[in-house]
Amino acid sequence: MITRIHYFTLVLYLAGIPFAAIAQQSIFDELYQGDEPVEIEIEAALVELIENRRLEEAQPSSFVFKNTRGQKLAFGVKLAQRGKYRRRICEFPPLSLDFSKNELKEQGFIPKYDKLKLVTHCLDDKQLGQELVLREYLGYKLFNELSSSSYRVQLAKVTYLDSNREIGRIKRFGFLIEDTDEMALRLGGEECEDCLNPPDSSIAASTENVMAVFQYMIGNADWSLPMMRNLKIVSPFDGGGLIPVPYDFDFSGLVNAPYALPNSDYGLLSVRQRVFLGNSTSRADLEKTLKLFLAKKARMYEIIQDFKLLSWESRQEIQAYLESFFQEAESILAADDSNPEYQLLRQCVRMQSSDDKGAFNRPPGK
Known about the structure:
Blueprint: H1 4-14, H2 27-31, E1 38-44, H3 46-51, E2 59-66, E3 72-81, H4 85-89, E4 95-99, H5 101-106, E5 115-119, H6 126-146, E6 153-162, E7 170-177, H7 180-186, E8 189-191, H8 205-217, E9 231-236, E10 243-246, H9 283-306, H10 312-333, H11 344-348
Parallel strand pairs: 1-6
Antiparallel strand pairs: 1-2, 2-3, 3-4, 4-5, 5-7, 6-7, 8-9, 9-10
């Protein structure tokens, strides 16, 4: 029988990471400060970055942050716009950070994990931009509580400096998302980039169901497992089922961004409406997932209420929105299917009939 230590060593070998790297940290590990925002300064040619949305070339930029020991660390990074919709409509685009592998190695960090995403404030309206980025960050933290198959995120206070001195400094909240390769190895696998339209049988069913019910809970219809839209798929080294890991929650009802559009493919009229887009499952398996959510309910509400960067009113509104999901979950577990507004059971569970064995309900337009 393979031991845990030998298995982990094998995982590192297959991922191309030297055994000596076990003692090293990634740059995300160094940035990670838990619930406290990390202070970051980014200096770049901001005017070109903000105004030229067709800019494909990454810009040489500086990235400075203060770690948990109060030390300032400085790196040269390649800064680029990323995304599609937000890149086009946001007044300040989302960004990708590409660190130098050599510089990471010189400073004692694992060079393999050199790419981070920075979710920015999007809107020039300081209050609304902050509200939206904090709500989306909260979505990631709630999913962290439900599943280890999730991206780690780090809240940041970012100061943007224009290297050409054409505009003044910009101070906003944002958050960093860990390198995908690092996340995949943490889950015991590697990213599968050619996993379009994977058969249901190839997916880690319970993990997928938790992810899909989470998306339903926060009112997010802007994702697709078959199309690998707004999620990454991890292929475990041990041959286990494929693991879907979601990202981008700004179109969810939880965030309720003014620029978000309801998904008309499913007949939605508001981003606050819910629709289940995951794989079908049995009622027993759905109930198992819902019991997990209900067991985590108090902790999730605690996370929301402790997040005091959001106003009391916003925290209450978010909790009330999630409460409507929990009421639906409780009704399913109580075998009460009478409320026509509750769609999860109808859309998720296989519905067998004498003339259509194996058929299951799908949301409109699916």
